Amino acid sequence: MIYLDNSATTPIDPEVSKAMWPYLTEEYGNPSSKYYTLAENAKKAVEEARSHVASLLSCQPDEIIFTSCATESNNFVLKGIVHYYKNKGKHIITSKIEHKSILETCKFLESEGYEVTYLDVDQYGQVQLETLKNAIREDTILVSIMWGNNEIGTLNNIEELAKYVKEHHPHVFFHTDATQVLGKIEVDLSKVPVDFLSLSAHKMYGPKGIGACFIRKRELGLRTKITPLLHGGNQEDGYRSGTLSVHNIVGLGKAAEIAKANLKEHQTKLLELEKQLVSALKENFPNIKFNGHPKQKIPGVINFTIPGINNELIIRSLKDEFAISTGSACSINEPSYVLSAIGLNVMEVKSSFRVSLNKYIDYNEINNFCINFKKTVENLMI
Which residues form a coiled coil (predicted)? Predict the structure, then answer.
């Protein structure tokens, strides 16, 4: 199978699985235990991984805590901030095209009495600064805007948005879900003043079941206070209790190390593959429309609409040879709310596809996909 659904998950890098293997076999110590070698080895491996994640983000290692996934990180930040600072405000701002783990968490918080403003996006799926400015109120406590969209690939100008919030409303926390962008674009938190950032390993050639949350330290190096999602044994400085999944953490660390070392090379390859795919699609389908921003986008994520064809029928016809999608893996059997938010009607949504590339794909596979995709469309149109 040619795998073209890498926004859903990526294959594990062989170097990552190799690094993980010892911690699934002989190095099985609990890093929270003390003194003996197995525990100390595990603790050292966890801290090394933490340093690699911090290096990828250009932050300090003690600003990284490990979670099970980006969904947990998103839940942890949104619930933890508004619960801890509930006396300072009950208003949250997010956008209409966030990942489900943000939107559903906001819906839950609304049931608890919090008020949420869901910002409109423009035709490309970007949150404009003026839109955010007009939404902030005296009782706003948190803004959560994704760095890059998982369906259409559009990048928000997180640096601009975060700088405005921190300069003009310093009491408001700023969170971004950066799950889709790490390893594909540079993320430098020494320049981008977000307070919180969520990430997941399996979107950058790491294992499933492990993620992390960046929590910026305050003045004088003080840790930002936040109500934990999980209470228990005080692991991760009390932010996230539970025995650490050492093998997965090692995998995330290795994936982050590789992503940092190969960022430019990876980005260049994805852009070249994307250019080839877009060119072939345009040649074969003159009426094709590409969704999302044409330039300010995640490399290798292509969302397009071909009027008059049913995306489900095409995807099912190709399912044994090619993996592509209609959109987010977290919106099963639902029409894309992201495409609706950028102005597509119901019929256009049902004629839209997402193809997302990885570093293992070659040019022959892109050509193979385009040939078979066109043939499938023609057969179903007869």
Answer: 256-283
